TrEMBL record:
It is a multi-pass membrane protein. Its main location: membrane. This is Phosphate transporter. The lineage of its organism: Bacteria, Pseudomonadati, Pseudomonadota, Alphaproteobacteria, Rhodobacterales. The keyword Disulfide bond does not apply. The keyword Transmembrane applies. It is found in: Membrane. Keywords: Membrane, Phosphate transport, Transmembrane, Transmembrane helix, Transport. The chain crosses the membrane at residues 35-56, 62-80, 92-118, 138-160, 172-192, 198-219, 231-254, 260-282, 303-322, 350-369, 389-406, 464-489. One of its GO terms (molecular function) is phosphate transmembrane transporter activity.
């Protein structure tokens, strides 16, 4: 060792250099992480195009199908990045699931829902918004569907980038409507269908919020505000889990098993009731055992709601996959059929490979880009614990399941975020009610100033107003963008 190398000042310099190198390595890793996601997304989009080429290599319009498959894959990635946050956000925000666990569960159940039960709503998206016969030719119809896909994907991509949980359903419906108007005028749009869908957009968040608030009221009144909380939880938690199991079983009987056996509504309801009762009976000893030794306080209740919350999140992911896969593959399926046979006026047959692109695209988008909005929905609107998050997830699952069964392309974003708002506003109302009650018992109790009362609101008003504004602008923005893209395509080919 030389004298210079043994000098302490040299060692200090070496430590500083190593520290700089370590910081540079961490910074490079941080910067490159988005690039890795973009690279994997690009590969997936290319693979979707290759799959389309393999299936339609001998068709008359293979290039069109390949481009459409790439656009459908791009849209599916954006759905996974933006929409799935609404399913897993409450569970992650309540610390019932880690981010990695939430992503793993969502990937499995989103894909299962899309592949098993994702067919009905696709027909509504592809054919219900515009009248295909008004397009005149198959070529015009294909350009309109491509414009709708691209505009919806671009809008959702932009919203995800700025951190806004917009509705992918709104985006694709607005895109289809805008392209239809650009291609054939306002008469091409089925305004009755649009009216029904618009009504469901208003009803779904309200219904999601009301149902979530009712479940929270049930939990508070029957469990949290009871003198013996653990004894009350032993009685009511199995009931809540039974409701969840019965709802899921009814839905699966109606949609998931239809390819094997036809089951009518009354039979499906009977199956749901039977499964719900069975799960209720099974959960009674399980909850009793799990609650042994727990202290009689609210913190202990969080443990009892952990597993039901995880299961309800999985249920919601299944329902979301069934309902929202239509946003990616509905227009794609219509393009495939029009390119293959020239028929664009009859019902759409959904090729299995098209459904696979939608299912896997949603999963990849969630895995690569979903955590940002998961954190926003789970922790930045209102504070969630396992009980509140369970109410949100169960409410959203029930609402999405009913909507998908009816074939309505409602927005899962509106339903889930509406449930979060419902829980938050119910907490505000309940807190005010308890303050008023305490003031009656203690008239001399000090009151808060108006500024302090506003600060203590349990729902962040800035997020509430921002999200409502994003919901309002999505349909016209997607429609205008789609119309512009259609005119550009039309100008380029003519």
């Amino acid at each position: 060792m030389t004298e210079e190398q043994g000098d302490p000042r040299h060692l200090e310099t070496l430590d500083r250099d190593l520290a700089r190198f370590s910081n540079l390595e961490m910074a490079t890793s941080y910067v490159s992480r988005p690039m890795v996601g973009l690279g994997i997304s690009f590969v997936f989009v290319l693979l979707a195009g290759i799959a389309a080429m393999l299936f339609f290599g001998q068709e008359t319009n293979p290039a069109i199908v390949v481009v459409a498959a790439c656009l459908g894959a791009y849209m599916a990635l954006n759905i996974g990045a933006n929409d799935v946050a609404n399913n897993m956000g409450p569970a992650v925000g309540a610390n019932a699931l880690s981010m990695g666990g939430a992503i793993a569960i969502a990937v499995v159940f989103e894909s299962a829902g899309a592949l098993i039960a994702g067919g009905d709503v696709v027909s509504t998206i592809a054919k219900g918004i515009i009248a295909p016969e008004s397009m005149g030719t198959a070529t015009v119809f294909i350009w309109a569907m491509m414009s709708a896909l691209l505009s919806a994907a671009l809008w959702v991509n932009l919203a995800t980038w700025i951190g806004a949980p917009v509705s992918t359903t709104h985006s694709v419906v607005g895109g289809v409507m805008g392209a239809g108007i650009a291609a054939a005028g306002f008469g091409a749009v089925s305004w009755a269908t649009m009216g029904a869908i618009a009504a469901s957009w208003v009803i779904s968040p309200l219904l999601g919020g009301v149902v979530a608030a009712l479940f929270l009221w049930l939990i508070k009144s029957r469990i949290i505000y009871r003198e013996n909380k653990i004894a009350a939880a032993r009685r009511w938690v199995p009931v809540l889990v039974g409701i969840m199991a019965g709802t899921f079983s009814t839905y699966l009987a109606l949609k998931g098993l239809k390819k094997i056996i036809k089951i009518d509504l009354s039979s499906a309801l009977m199956i749901g009731v039977a499964v719900g009762l069975l799960v209720w009976v099974v959960m009674i000893p399980m909850i009793r055992k799990q609650s042994e030794g727990l202290e009689n306080r609210n913190k202990s209740l969080k443990i009892l709601f952990g597993v039901p919350l995880v299961v309800s999140a999985a249920l919601l992911s299944f329902a979301h996959g069934a309902n929202d896969v239509a946003n990616a593959v509905g227009p794609l399926a219509a393009i495939v059929q029009a390119s293959q046979s020239g028929d664009f006026t009859h019902s759409v047959a959904i090729p299995f490979w098209v459904m696979v692109i939608g299912a896997f695209g949603i999963s990849f988008g969630l895995f690569l880009f979903g955590p940002k909005l998961i954190r926003m929905v789970g922790g930045q609107i209102t504070k969630l614990n396992p009980m509140r998050a369970y109410c949100v997830a169960l409410s959203a699952a029930i609402t999405v399941i009913v909507a998908s069964w009816l074939g309505l392309p409602v927005s899962s974003t509106h339903i889930a975020v509406g449930g979060v708002f419902g829980v938050g506003f119910f907490r505000e109302w309940d807190a005010e009610r308890r303050i008023r009650k305490a003031r009656l018992q203690m008239p001399n109790r000090p009151t808060y100033a108006p500024e302090e009362r506003l600060r203590r609101k349990l729902v962040r008003r800035s997020h509430f107003l921002t999200i409502i504004a994003a919901w309002l602008i999505t349909v016209p923005a997607a429609a205008i963008l789609s119309a512009v893209i259609f005119f550009l395509i039309n100008a380029a080919i003519n």
